[in-house]
From TrEMBL:
This is ABC transporter permease subunit. It comes from Agromyces agglutinans. Keywords: Membrane, Transmembrane, Transmembrane helix, Transport. Pfam families: BPD_transp_1 (PF00528). It comes from the Bacteria.
């Protein structure tokens, strides 16, 4: 219990520090977002409304920075992330809610596929080390070493431009109305296949290599030798004894990678013009949309912290040695 209490206190302090940094960074960045908003909306927003907009966005120059900080925490506790400059007057929470499912659906499915395929391949390669299966490692490592944006551009050139199998950009056919229908769902899968494929290819090497190395280490343990001496089948020993213990670090890494799903793959969403959180963050930075940037950073931070908590709990349950005092 003390282990979980210590970890819980650590995450509370981490969350406070992340929110504090999230509050101060946009305010020390150069530029005036309110004047930029008025300049982008000339004719619709009069210059006389500058003072009112500063109060609306919590940037009132007559209010001290400490009071703005306290007001920011009060808004967070009410679930109010502010109003987006770019999509004014839409609340930030609504803008993020529209983009978040696209990123979770695409990057989440790709991450799960990459973890599952990579772990299974790593199990087989590590168990049969020294055979022809080891020749797969340099190939997978080569693809993971290729810059992601370059791999995405190669995929677009081959599968979109040359072969014409998949679209080069977008998240669904714009002629369709978003709704729960087979036609729309099929369009989403069709447009998301190429981005998902590039994510799997670029990230699968890490899962293969990590599981392979752990399998090599675990396969020399005494309990594996005893299981083989009992006459158990090779499949039972490999999955029931070796892989069961070798997968522990993989589970922890997988839980952490789930937290970064919310952040999406920024470069991938920019290259494919995919309407996820990563692309939304790119547009927010370009437009100096501080409330939207703060909201996205906060959502990503919370997701990573929750993933860390899940990883600690899962690892503490799977391996009780981590809960023991030194």
């Amino acid at each position: 219990m003390r282990f979980f209490l210590r970890r819980g206190l650590f995450y509370v302090i981490t969350f406070w520090a992340a929110v504090t940094i999230n509050f101060f960074i946009p305010r020390i960045m150069p530029g005036d977002p309110v004047r930029a908003l008025i300049a982008r909306n000339q004719g619709r927003i009069p210059s006389e409304a500058e003072a009112s907009l500063r109060i609306l966005f919590g940037l009132d120059q007559d209010t001290t920075l400490w009071q703005q900080y306290l007001d920011y925490w009060a808004l967070l506790f009410r679930g109010d992330l502010g109003i987006s400059f770019t999509y004014f007057p839409t609340p930030v929470s609504d803008v993020i809610a529209q983009a978040l499912p696209w990123t979770i659906g695409l990057v989440g499915i790709a991450t799960i596929l990459s973890f599952t395929i990579g772990t299974l391949l790593g199990t087989g390669i590590g168990w049969r080390r020294g055979t022809w299966a080891d020749s797969l490692l340099p190939i997978s490592t080569f693809f993971s070493a290729v810059p992601y944006f370059w791999l995405a551009l190669i995929a677009i050139t081959i599968f979109s431009v040359t072969l014409g199998w998949f679209p080069a950009s977008g998240s669904y056919d714009r002629s369709l109305i978003p709704m729960w229908s087979w036609e729309f769902v099929g369009s989403v899968i069709y447009y998301g296949t190429l981005p998902a494929l590039t994510i799997v290819i670029s990230s699968i090497s890490g899962w293969i290599l990590g599981m392979r190395n752990m399998m090599v280490t675990v396969s020399s343990e005494d309990y594996v030798t005893v299981a083989q001496a009992k006459g158990l089948s090779e499949r039972a020993v490999m999955f029931g004894y070796a892989a069961r213990n070798a997968i522990l670090p993989q589970v922890s890494s997988f839980a952490l990678s789930l937290g970064f799903i919310v952040g999406g793959t920024l470069v991938m969403e920019i290259v494919f013009s995919y309407q996820g959180i990563g692309y939304l963050l790119f547009t927010a930075v370009a437009a100096k949309d501080y409330p939207l940037m703060q909201g996205i950073f906060l959502v990503i931070t919370v997701a990573v912290l929750i993933a860390n908590i899940v990883a600690d709990i899962a690892y503490g349950i799977l391996d009780p040695r981590t809960r023991q005092e030194g």
